[in-house]
User: What shape does this take?
Amino acid sequence: MMTKRTGRILSRVLLHTTVIFIAFLWLIPTVGVLVTSFRPAQDVGNSGWWTVFENIFTSARFTLMNYKLVISRLGIGRAFLNSFIITIPSTIIPLVVALFAAYALAWMRFFARPFIFMVMIALLVVPLQLTFIPILYIFNKLSLAGTFPGIWLAHTGYGLPLAIYMLYNFISGLPEEIIDSASIDGASPFYTFLRIVLPLSVPIIASLVIFQFLWVWNDLLVALIYLGGTPDVAPITVQISSLVGSYGQDWELLTAAVFISIIPSILVFFGLQRYFIRGILTGSIKG
Amino acid sequence: MRKLMLVLLILGLLVSWFCGVSFAGRTVSVLGVWGGGERDAFMKAMEPFEAATGIRVEFTGTRDLPAVLTTRVAAGNPPDISVLPNPGQMQEFARVRALVDLGSFMDINKLRNEYAETWIDLGSYEGKLYAIFFSADLKSLVWYNPRAFADAGYDVPGTWNELITLSDKIVSQGKTPWSIGLESGAASGWPGTDWIEDIMLRIAKPEIYDKWVNHEIPWTDPVVKRAWQIFGQIARNKNYVYGGPATELTTNFGEAPNALFTSPPRAYMHKQATFIKSFILKYNPQLVPGKDFSFFPFPSIDPEYGVPALGAADMFSVFNDTEEARALMRYLATPGAQEIWVAQLGKLSANRRVNPNAYPDDLTRKAAKILANARTFRFDGSDLMPAAVGSGSFWTGILDYVSGEDLDSVLKRIEATAVDAYKR
Assistant: This one.
């Protein structure tokens, strides 16, 4: 009895130490960036961030200068606004399309359904860099290059395969009886989708929102290619990258800039977190 | 669902409004590599142009310039004007007729008067001028701390032998002569390529240098090998370099000069281009250029080849032949535009007529003089080579060599990638 309990406690302690240790290792770079963001530029160049802990009561100096500079140089309001204008539709549009598609692929019978699904899955492995030139060419012909609708379309295209795949796994795993009884009661496929499938899919929708939001919010290259970097359209990532000189001068400003730019991502994540794990697990197990 | 539609509608309206705003008025789009202080300086140089013409300059700066530019050109959506990373890239674009012949709207004779022959040649392809040079960086410099030199009683070396004698003397006094930093993120190793190029120019004719850059002589050629050995004589010598090769490999190039300004100095000399001044001042704002830090030309090795100048430069080309682009291009070529730019950044101007007083200090004027008077000038070789070599195996080769790998195997590996890369 005693030994069994000590054994359990011991394994618990072991587990927790391991978890804490891994979490600690994982956090080191982030802590480094955080500490650096509060150090004066001179000190950043002359000593490592970890030296702060040795001299915390003596020579270590802290400043808010990096944050001040970032906010004043970035035109931060406009950059944030642009990022939201890009990210919100680029999250909602692919999600809506993918929901319809996944429902149709899972529960409706139509011509070449498996083939269409396979093509979707195959698109998962196409690197998006491959599409830059042809898509920019088309956008250019349609005068979509450098406009927000253009980049919404691009992100929709890039987001769809994964979104459809995850939603399909989830929606096709819903109990057949529910769908059947709805149609016996006279519900049209659209009504079934709206009243039954949609409410049941909230966890997976939440996880997809997190994925897509983070991906679009953090994207630099897609925005740079399709939108360009002029201040009236550039999202925060593009603005942040132009804080740094061509030889990498002023990189310590980046450390402050990233902490400013991750605020919305963190809010979205914590807002939807309680659905997140559930969504991922259900999606993956019922494949 | 209805709410969602409403949100979408509102966003759509917002966006069409923004798009409308951004296309109002006459604009010219410029793509470049500059960010931070450089971008501010460029926009400052554009102010008189915008005020005089009412044309707005829309500048986009990205360090991914080659990728973004190539994509946009291939997709038929290039910027009106772009900075080009190097003459090799300019020739590629000229070959596929992506560039506008500057002779069609600029006075070539006037340009020939104002720019040295080298700059005109580097900006031309098949007899037509496609690029003008805006500013340059001189690379063949060794930075030192005049106060530390005076305290220790050292003289500025004028020849390679004097340089090595001085280095040995510093070592014999238990100190370290050199500080070298090769780390630069994904571009680590590039500071070493400048060493090799500068040494190549000092042990062979400029024509041989050109052949090496164009891969008409192999990397295993005795001349190339000798250049690497001379580099290794300093860079692989643990007594010569502060912290030895290990520190050298992990020190950021921008932070390496800091070793000259500690007390007592951790090192006495540092080879780097003119732009390093801004790094030195940033990390050590109390220093006065010319008094607390200065430079001497990287000395001659084989006397017959003298003291050539190695450099890199910023060049502009036109991709869309619009009125606005023509106007901006004419402005960029003027001494007035370049004076603002060099005064802000301490770069060197390419235009001969730039007033020397525009330079922010004597040190920069001195560098401009060295550049103007150099009998031989060559463009940074690694910038001219295909990317697989010039920003690939050459960089990693430097790191492998400094970390102790056998020279022959390093050179063989670079040669193997070069054989592939130059075929295309």
Remarks:
- Chain B has two domains: 26-137+312-374, 141-307+385-423.
- The first strand of chain B starts at residue 27 and ends at 32.
- Residues 19-23 of chain B have pLDDT under 50 and may be disordered.
